[in-house]
Every structure is written in structure tokens, then in C-alpha cells.
């Protein structure tokens, strides 16, 4: 799985990030024009010789469209960012302003990342190395980036569980795998979820079914394929789980509720 998503946008094209819930922030590169946004009650901007690290919240609510720009967003996976941002030593009230000058080396790293997203033969391992190189280099040169990454990865226990599940809904998941990822015991995971009235099994089932419902609404993918995409080992298992949530079979759901 690629550690990032590469999205092109402009002041004329709305940036839609709803399908990237596991990627909370990323680097924005301006290809032409001036990209402006509001942060900490002040107007900020970047131009082609700069790049910025912006959260999804800023990208979806603060980008201004009163000036022309074309830009590329390298949206990073939560787990990648988590590897670089441990818990902050002190509380930061505002998200730090993270805009940087794109020197030749940074420019080349960013351009290589963007190119790698367009090459099907580029392995995820190579992309991970490129992302790690960019983060390591930029953090070393601009310490404010570490603070920004720390804030992005400072989420609740339940959100960490949710992000873990979302990133691999089509793959096998288990409590021991989750506990290893969070570096706690299985007993601790169960206890922490139970404190909020949740359970691993029920959370995972609902997430997989909700993903299945989204796929059913948006196309004509067969029920067997949808079951596989959502991590079920058989269409029968998917049918039974789906009916327990929505009260009808996937076929009936798609026929009656699929959007045009």
C-alpha cells in the first residue's frame, strides 16, 4: 500500500479528501500562481519556489480561491507521520506555520515523489523510503515541522484504533495485530475500548459493512467482489453481516438505495 496519495488541484477545482481519512496532512507544492490560506487569524501563502505542510482541516476549510493557482498535494498516511512524531513535550496552542523554501534538493525529492505516484512499477517500499527521506531532511532543516507532525498524530486511543482498521479493511485483522501496532497488550486494548462501550469485533464489522455500502451505492461491482474488498472471506459471510446492520441483503440495498 502506498504511503501517500498524490492529488492535483487548483482554485477552480474543489479538493475532495473524504476518501483519504487515514491521511491527516501532507505537503503542498505550488506549480503556478499563489496559493493562499488563513491560519492563526493571518493570511499565509506559498508560490512555486516554496512548499508547505498543511493539515486536512486547513486544506478543506482555509484555502482561498481569490487568486489563480495550480498545486499538487502529497497527502501522507497517518502511520508514516506517526513514525516521525512522538508525543509533544509541551502543549502548543496553535498549529505551527510550516512553509518552506524549496531548495534544489527538496524540489527534487518532491518531484520524485510525485513522479513515483504515476508509475505503476514503483514499489511501495521505494515510496516509503522517499517519504522518509523527505520528512527526515525537512525536519532536520526546519524543526517546526516536527511540532506540526506531533500535533497531527496526537489523537485519542479510539482514533488510533479506527485509523489502524481503516488502513487495512480489505486485509486480515486481529486483536493481537492491533495490540502489537499500538505497542500495548491485548488486555489493554479490550479494556480501553470497553471503557467507551466499544469492542474490536463490532468496530471492525461496522467499518467493513459501511465500506461495502459505499461501494454498493457507487457502482455495479458484484457482491462477491464487494465482500472481498471489505475483508470478508465469503459472500455469505458478507450477506449475513450486512443484513445485521442494514436489515436487508446487499442486492436489495443496492437496488433500493444506490445513487444515480
Automatic annotation (TrEMBL):
The keyword Ligase does not apply. Residues 159-256 form the HTH araC/xylS-type domain. InterPro entries: Homeodomain-like_sf (IPR009057), HTH_AraC (IPR018060), HTH_AraC-typ_CS (IPR018062), Tscrpt_reg_AraC-type_HTH (IPR020449). Keywords: DNA-binding, Transcription, Transcription regulation. Coiled coil: none annotated. Pfam families: HTH_18 (PF12833). PROSITE patterns: HTH_ARAC_FAMILY_1, HTH_ARAC_FAMILY_2. SMART domains: HTH_ARAC (SM00342). PANTHER family: ARAC-FAMILY TRANSCRIPTIONAL REGULATOR, HTH-TYPE TRANSCRIPTIONAL REGULATOR EXSA. This is Helix-turn-helix transcriptional regulator.
Amino acid at each position: 500500500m502506498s504511503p501517500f496519495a498524490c492529488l492535483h488541484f487548483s482554485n477552480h477545482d474543489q479538493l475532495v479528501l473524504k476518501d483519504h481519512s487515514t491521511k491527516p496532512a501532507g505537503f503542498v507544492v505550488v506549480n503556478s500562481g499563489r496559493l493562499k490560506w488563513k491560519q492563526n487569524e493571518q493570511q499565509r501563502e506559498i508560490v512555486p519556489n516554496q512548499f508547505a505542510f498543511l493539515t486536512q482541516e486547513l486544506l478543506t476549510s482555509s484555502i482561498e480561491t481569490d487568486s489563480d493557482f495550480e498545486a499538487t498535494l502529497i497527502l501522507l498516511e497517518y502511520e508514516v507521520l506517526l513514525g516521525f512524531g512522538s508525543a509533544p513535550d509541551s502543549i502548543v496552542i496553535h498549529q505551527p506555520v510550516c512553509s518552506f523554501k524549496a531548495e534544489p534538493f527538496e524540489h527534487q525529492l518532491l518531484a520524485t515523489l510525485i513522479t513515483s505516484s504515476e508509475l505503476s512499477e514503483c514499489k511501495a517500499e521505494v515510496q516509503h523510503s522517499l517519504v522518509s527521506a523527505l520528512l527526515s531532511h525537512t525536519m532536520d532543516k526546519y524543526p517546526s515541522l516536527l511540532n506540526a507532525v506531533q500535533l497531527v498524530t496526537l489523537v485519542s486511543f479510539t482514533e488510533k484504533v479506527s485509523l489502524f482498521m481503516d488502513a487495512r479493511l480489505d486485509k486480515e485483522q486481529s486483536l493481537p495485530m492491533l495490540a502489537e501496532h499500538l505497542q500495548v497488550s491485548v488486555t489493554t486494548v479490550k479494556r480501553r475500548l470497553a471503557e467507551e462501550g466499544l469492542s474490536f469485533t463490532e468496530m471492525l464489522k461496522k467499518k467493513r459493512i459501511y465500506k461495502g455500502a459505499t461501494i454498493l451505492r457507487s457502482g455495479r461491482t458484484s457482491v462477491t467482489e464487494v465482500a472481498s474488498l471489505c475483508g470478508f472471506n465469503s459472500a455469505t459471510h458478507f450477506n449475513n453481516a450486512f443484513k445485521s446492520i442494514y436489515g436487508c441483503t446487499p442486492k436489495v440495498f443496492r437496488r433500493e438505495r444506490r445513487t444515480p
